[in-house]
Amino acid sequence: MKQYFHIVTYGCQMNVHESEKIAGLLARLGYESCDKIEEADIVVFNTCCIRENAENHAYGNIGMLKKLKAAKRNMIIAVGGCLPQQIKKAEELHEKFPFVDIIFGTHNLGKLEDYILEKRARKKAVIKIEECDGSVIEGEPKLRTSYPNAWVNIMYGCNNFCSYCIVPYVRGRERSRCCENVIEEVKGLLNEGYKEITLLGQNVNSYLSPTGGMKFNGLLDKISSLDGDFRLRFMTSHPKDFSRELAEVIAAHDKICNCVHLPVQSGSDRILKAMNRKYTSSDYLKKVEILKKYVPDCAITTDIIVGFPGESEEDFRQTVKLVEEVDFASAFTFVYSKREGTKAATMPDAVPEEVSKRRIMELIELVNSRTREHSARFVGKNTVVLCEGYDEKKGLYLGRNEYGRMGYFESKEDVFGKFVDLKINKANGISLYGDIVNVRG
Ligand code: 5AD
Ligand code: SF4
């Protein structure tokens, strides 16, 4: 009889890709993917703990499975990822949800098959959290779900210890994959027909291959010199490590998208210092200037946190000023979320919730108006999108251009996975609407 799995993912692209690895392991055990949680024989929650709301979201959804588990005793429920990587949270999860069968962390994801076999053989919950041993696992199976796009990890962990961030504690220290393995993986994906590769790391700029010492710029150069009609993206860059050389590599290769995610977090030097970001707002602006000099049409996107402990109205005004100055193509905005175990969690002068709310609303409005302006710039022009799906509600195909803007369009032929030239005739928020001018390949 067929057995089915269902994975619920929280958080960033890194986690989405990790879920593709979990799916690969489950497929190797003979499970098949299913859309409906009720039909699954195994449900895996791949959690994120970067902010409290992602955490609460996971808690809520896990809690909702209690009834289903009572009715379907053989169903296996597993909770993995960042949240249980913190031992205290793993214990809390077990106490709160005793019906969860398997709890595992970020460093032992590769052992999930063993844990499932162990659970099948016994009644008690299998709770396994391991510390990071600094190793890099290669060759794990992956069941990719995002064709024509593919994510490729180039490094894991983070050494930056931004004072608000839990990532270094749950993902361990920085370690890079060997460049040969990364390049082989990309070649394999291109052979399989993938058209867009996104290189992933918490701080891709500090990539350093353990073999041969290749750095990030070299890796980008090498991959974008591979044959084929494809696009290359990367994320995330830390502004302190963003260099002129990197801007040059982006400018030198058409395959590298003119789109850089450069999280600024705040425009106030006082707050940046307290955040341990290791740059000032003027350092950041200088990097932006360099990037714009070499890649004039580059879409720069960012992350911003409001309500960091001690953030005054003046500090917030500095952030607004910086956003007005940089002309970001889009930005993710977050209200500071206190994470136990981080340095910021011990800092005084918490910003009252209503103040943070007001600030984020103002910022969102500003960011949205900028985003609309950016979209409007495409109207009347041609842009190339990589078709990644069909929107049933709109009855239109959709695809992203190299700047990250989503374009919607009609097509009689199936253009899924193809590069399509669009003439844009309308913009709405972050979305563009256009007509097909040409279909490539
Ligand atoms: N509170 C709010 N936002 C956070 N981020 C990371 N940690 C926190 C936190 N404790 C945001 C940062 C980062 C993005 C991935 O998440 O802006 O760039
Ligand atoms: Fe967190 Fe800073 Fe590392 Fe990004 S660079 S993962 S924000 S500690």
Question: What tags apply to this protein structure?
Answer:
441 residues, alpha/beta, Rossmann fold, Transcription Regulator spoIIAA, OB fold (Dihydrolipoamide Acetyltransferase, E2P), six-stranded parallel β-sheet, five-stranded mixed β-barrel, 14 helices, 19 strands, 23% strand, globular, binds 5'-deoxyadenosine, binds iron/sulfur cluster
Describe what this molecule looks like in 3D.
The chain is of the alpha/beta class and 441 residues long. The radius of gyration is 22 Å and the shape is globular. It has helices spanning 13-28, 52-63, 66-71, 82-85, 87-96, 112-121, 167-171, 179-192, 216-224, 244-252, 269-274, 281-294, 313-326, 353-376, and strands spanning 3-9, 31-33, 42-47, 76-81, 102-104, 126-128, 149-153, 155-156, 175-176, 196-200, 231-235, 259-261, 299-306, 330-335, 382-391, 396-401, 406-409, 419-428, 431-439. Among the domains are: 3-128, Methylthiotransferase, N-terminal domain (Rossmann fold), CATH 3.40.50; 146-257, Transcription Regulator spoIIAA; 382-439, OB fold (Dihydrolipoamide Acetyltransferase, E2P) (Beta Barrel), CATH 2.40.50.140. 5'-deoxyadenosine (5AD) binds next to strand 13. Residues 158, 160-162, 165, 167-168, 202-203, 238 line the site of iron/sulfur cluster.
Counting helices, strands and paired strands, the structural category is alpha/beta
Any idea what the radius of gyration is? 22 Å
Low-pLDDT sequence parts: none
Quick one: biggest sheet? 6 strands, parallel
Shape: globular
State the separation between the terminal residues, measured CA to CA: 41 Å
